[in-house]
Specification:
By secondary structure, the protein is of the alpha+beta class. The chain has three domains: 37 residues, no CATH class; 33 residues; 107 residues, Hypothetical protein apc22750. Chain B (Translation Initiation Factor IF3, 2-Layer Sandwich). It is built from four helices and nine strands, in the order βββββααββααββ. Strands 6-8-9-7 form a four-stranded mixed beta sheet. Helix 2 packs across helix 4. The N and C termini lie far apart (56 Å).
Length: 193
């Protein structure tokens, strides 16, 4: 069992002992590990290919995404615009599709709780909690993009982020829950000037 740095985001991730395929939990990059070296497969970057677009269309029509590779979903969802405003600057909304949501729950482990108790006692900022909140927000917004992709949206507007602490009881580690929600919309095609 070992930890390695993701070649994309440079955060440490658990990779295990075997040569395999994994997804970075921080940046959602699809990675391969061979002989202890993490790398991004050559097909990971670049625009969507025709066969990838066709796979997305089939999945959307059947409402079954099990045959679409994670790399294709990640690449397709990267272009979905997320905004807290009720419109997309420089674009006209053609159609409101539906409300989309993404939920994410992150555990606060014993070590984080110990340091948070010390911070409560002595004062100061808790970098571990701040990092957990950042990670939870990124994961929730990535999931919101994926939800929007599944319904055929170009953007998600009026995004609201709600945070909630879920207590683990007396002397137990708690959890942090974040819910991201917004309205999935299709935009009118832009005319070239």
């Amino acid at each position: 069992m070992s930890f390695k740095r993701c070649p994309k985001c440079q955060k440490e991730i658990f990779v295990g002992d075997k040569d395999t395929f994994i997804t970075c939990k921080y940046c959602e990059t699809y990675l391969t590990i061979s002989d202890g070296v993490l790398s991004v497969p050559p097909d990971e970057d670049g625009p969507l290919k025709t066969e990838e677009l066709e796979a997305i269309k089939r999945a959307r029509s059947k409402n079954d995404w099990s045959d679409v590779p994670l790399t294709t979903i990640r690449k397709a969802s990267e272009n979905i615009i997320l905004t807290t405003s009720p419109f997309v600057a420089g674009a006209e909304i053609e159609k409101e599709i539906e409300i989309v949501t993404a939920e994410c729950v992150f555990g606060m482990n014993v070590f984080k709780d110990f340091f948070n108790v010390a911070r409560d006692f002595f004062g100061g900022r808790s970098r571990t909690t701040q990092q957990t909140l950042r990670d939870a927000r990124k994961v929730a917004l990535t999931e919101l993009r994926r939800e929007a992709l599944q319904v055929g949206a170009h953007a998600v507007i009026a995004i609201d982020l709600d945070y909630q602490e879920i207590s683990g009881g007396a002397g137990k580690s708690g959890m942090i829950m974040i819910v991201a929600s917004g309205t999935a919309v299709q935009l009118q095609p832009r005319m070239n000037a």
